[in-house]
Design a protein that fits this description.
The chain is of the alpha/beta class and 235 residues long. It is built from seven helices and 14 strands. The protein has one domain: Spore Coat Polysaccharide Biosynthesis Protein SpsA, Chain A (Alpha-Beta Complex), CATH 3.90.550. An eight-stranded mixed β-sheet has the order 5-6-4-1-7-12-9-13, with helices on both faces. Strands 2-3 form a two-stranded antiparallel ribbon.
Length: 235
């Protein structure tokens, strides 16, 4: 597979602690967050990384160049913010594989990608989401599924609380199906795609209990400084 990584975020909520680099490049124990992401992905035979970049893209491009751990790196540039969906659409033009892995550049969710791909293929899914069970869904919103893993609905954040499954920010997308849909240049993959098409398409979700951390707020960014010491290169 090839992996599209959404790495162009400004990181508005992190501006008080990280303001000079894109959110995905926020330093964690002396190295950019994205390095932890790529080190994790390097274990699963990814054949190319495609960065969706915008805000201060030159910082990412200068740091990673054209390869990482001998895996080619390519860049899809946004001249203006395209939203998560538009960024994926723009980046997937550079992908050649039928199934494309998509990840948020500001979230580390260390699932077994081989299991996720097997699930995607067995379900003959058009699009698959990796879910994470959390104790309080109020910050994220909830993804609802039936007994077979097919998505049956979404609940907005702050409308419910307590234990549940959230969108973990890792997707498998069938490229041909994605490009066959009438999608605009700018849209949200969560709101304008998954929530719009889940009833019309085969969209499945697989739950995982793997390590998960979204550095989108200062408190969790600080958690990363403490917790990422357990992750080493190629681990």
């Amino acid at each position: 597979m090839e992996a599209v990584i959404l790495a162009g975020g400004l990181g508005t909520r992190l501006q008080s602690v990280v303001s000079e680099v894109p959110k995905s490049m926020a330093p964690v124990n002396g190295k950019p967050f994205l390095e932890y992401q790529l080190d994790y992905l390097s274990n699963f035979g990814i054949k190319k990384f495609i960065f969706s970049v915008g805000y201060k893209a030159e910082i990412i491009q200068k740091h990673f160049g054209d390869q990482w751990h001998s895996i080619p790196v390519d860049y899809a540039f946004e001249k203006e913010p395209l939203g998560t969906g538009g960024g994926i659409k723009n980046a997937m033009k550079l992908a050649e594989s039928e199934q494309v892995l998509v990840l948020n550049g500001d979230t580390l969710f260390r699932i077994n990608l081989n299991d996720f791909l097997d699930f995607h293929l067995q379900k003959e899914s058009a699009f698959s989401l990796a879910l994470r069970k959390v104790n309080d869904v109020s910050r994220y919103g909830t993804v609802c599924t039936d007994e077979n893993g097919m998505i049956t609905g979404f609940k907005e954040k702050n409308t419910s609380s307590g234990e549940g499954f959230i969108n973990g920010g890792i997707y498998l997308i069938e490229k041909n199906i994605f490009f066959s849909l009438p999608l605009p240049a700018r849209f949200s993959i969560e709101k304008d795609f998954f929530e719009k098409y889940y009833q019309a398409l085969a969209i499945f979700a697989m739950p995982f209990e793997a390590y998960f951390l979204d550095i989108g707020i200062p408190e969790d960014y600080q958690r990363a400084q403490n917790e990422f010491t357990q992750f080493t290169d190629k681990q």
